Amino acid sequence: MATISAKSILVPKISSSSSNSNVSSSRSSSSFLPSVKPTISLKASYSKSRSFVIKNGLGTVETKGSSSGTNDVTKETKPTILVSEKLGEAGIEVLESFANVDCSYNLTPEELCKKISNVDALIVRSGTKVSRQVFEASKGRLKVVGRAGVGIDNVDLQAATEFGCLVVNAPTANTVAAAEHGIALLSSMARNVAQSDASMKAGKWERNKYVGVSLVGKTLAVMGFGKVGSEVARRAKGLGMHIIAHDPYAPADRARALGVELVSFEKAITTADFISLHMPLTPTTSKVFNDETFGKMKKGVRIINVARGGVIDEDALVRALDSGVVAQAALDVFTVEPPPQDSKLVQHANVTVTPHLGASTKEAQEGVAIEIAEAVVGALNGELSATAVNAPMVPAEVLSELAPYVVLAEKLGKLAVQLVAGGSGIKSVKVVYKSARDRDDLDTRLLRAMIIKGIFEPISSNFINLVNADYTAKEKGVRISEERIVVDSSPEFPVDTVQVRIANVESKFAGAMSDNGEICIEGKVKGGVPHLTCVGSFSVDVSIEESLILCKQVDQPGMIGRVGSILGQRNVNVSFMSVGRIGVRKQAIMAIGVDEEPDKDTLKQIGDVPAIEEFVFLDL
């Protein structure tokens, strides 16, 4: 693939059924995010006089100027969103304004897999496991998974990416609530609030037993200095604590601004009096707090965890508590939730526990519900959400600027793959961007994804988008390389030309082979419309909005009229013709745009014209 919700580019789009993963010619031609049936889809034919307009995620093109055809507006059914865990009413209202909403809670894995093939988006909290089996059972229909909260360890991101499903979360709405709960656990643990409360309710008065420790002047190590961790640090400083933090990805300037010292993992755990955990659960962090780690800590250290239970080896923590290395622990999360009733950790006298209440405030619940609902609706509309976890973030201004080039990129990919004759298959694709801009001023991720989409979707059963484009190419063993060439043109436009080269393959159309033996086509955007400007060694200038017939011929008078007459006699409408030649009365390529696919007899008649050496029909 900024804290913005980037609106989608409005590109020509033909609606498609989202009920399975089979590719058909009616699928969206230019959708770069997971897409579902929109409420309104536009199917249109256009003249060259038009312009791109950015709207809020409808994923279509609004045109200005004259039109050579008509716009048929077809109402489609609403997408379906499955909510598998309790979500705030405000969020449900956002969803219901856009989609059919199915609130089915406490589903077994089998029940979820049974339902998932009938939904376009799924919203979960931490209790639902979105496994590979779920994505397989969706049969390609599931396009968005929304995690109402921060952690996404209950979602198989690899599988989501493989199946082209966007995963979004809600990382900001519960930040303050989680930080406040961390501070609440810190304070109540230090002063034995939970234990003394239970003692009094049991009819006891044990002032001497529950003597606590002061927080002022103590060192708190914040392990994970993201949104929640930094908010905990801010509040703990107000309690007079000295704050250090460990996070290999945290910017030093942000830490300095809060008066926090970033230190190594080793220094954090060996010098802290209190350790507050705010790290995600990953293969690297799983059980990172274990016997070895506890053995390096100060005797009498106190630990707070409002992040993920799996980062602590719970058996090791019990041993550390029993030995006195860890004096106390305050835990809101556990490896298995809910933990077993006979859990030694939960029952330990020096442990304060809460049932995953980090985000459980009225304000946070409503905020998370709205945040995830808006993210899911935006994603179904084709928007690139700023909270997407498995797609590159492309800023809104870049999306807007690249709008017509997205169409060009996919069209070039579709043209290139249709020129391949088969044989050993495609092993490498090179994309060359010519631009007047510096390398750092040209973000090509979206264009690369659309070229991959154009190449692979017509020859596979996969739906390809920005989420899974690079993965798809890698899985198929195709190396995608990019080159950027600075040219002397106007920097007002992000790209001057885009060239697609496929090496070590045979071509159905020899005229598309460059001098170095590669299939080579090149295009550019003119007036907001994608044009094909080069085929092999031949310069052409044709709009690539419709399907094409390419004819390699001997340049001589009457060729345009002769081929045009054949098409006219067979009732095939010609939208344009263009001829590119290497010299007068030498070889030339004639490019013909057609509104309908000619039948085999018509194409044979064209091929029988004596001056035509070869031809190919390219379906766009």
From TrEMBL:
What Pfam families has UniProt attached to this entry?
2-Hacid_dh (PF00389), 2-Hacid_dh_C (PF02826), ACT (PF01842), PGDH_inter (PF19304)
Instruction: Tell me the route in metabolism or biology where this protein functions.
Output: Amino-acid biosynthesis; L-serine biosynthesis; L-serine from 3-phospho-D-glycerate: step 1/3
Q: What class of enzyme is it?
A: oxidoreductase
Q: What is its EC number?
A: 1.1.1.95
A GO molecular function term, named singly, is:
phosphoglycerate dehydrogenase activity
UniProt entry tagged with the keyword Amino-acid biosynthesis: yes
Keyword 4Fe-4S tagged:
no
Q: Looking at the record's lineage, which domain of life comes first? A: Eukaryota
* GO BP terms in the entry: L-serine biosynthetic process
PROSITE patterns in the cross-refs? ACT, D_2_HYDROXYACID_DH_1, D_2_HYDROXYACID_DH_2, D_2_HYDROXYACID_DH_3
What is the protein's major site of localization? Answer: plastid
Q: Which keywords does this Swiss-Prot/TrEMBL entry list?
A: Amino-acid biosynthesis, Chloroplast, NAD, Oxidoreductase, Plastid, Serine biosynthesis, Transit peptide
* Reactions that this protein is recorded to catalyse: (2R)-3-phosphoglycerate + NAD(+) = 3-phosphooxypyruvate + NADH + H(+)
CDD domains reported in the protein's UniProt record: ACT_3PGDH-xct (cd04902), PGDH_4 (cd12173)
The record's region (Disordered) falls at 15-34
Give start and end of each ACT domain. 548-620
> What InterPro entries is this protein classified in?
ACT-like_dom_sf, ACT_dom, Ado_hCys_hydrolase_NAD-bd, ASB_dom_sf, D-isomer_2_OHA_DH_cat_dom, D-isomer_DH_CS, D-isomer_DH_CS1, D-isomer_DH_NAD-bd
Cellular component (GO) terms are: chloroplast stroma
Where does the record place it?
Plastid, Chloroplast
* Family note: Belongs to the D-isomer specific 2-hydroxyacid dehydrogenase family.
Please name the NCBIfam families in this protein's record.
Answer: PGDH (TIGR01327)
Q: What is this protein called?
A: D-3-phosphoglycerate dehydrogenase
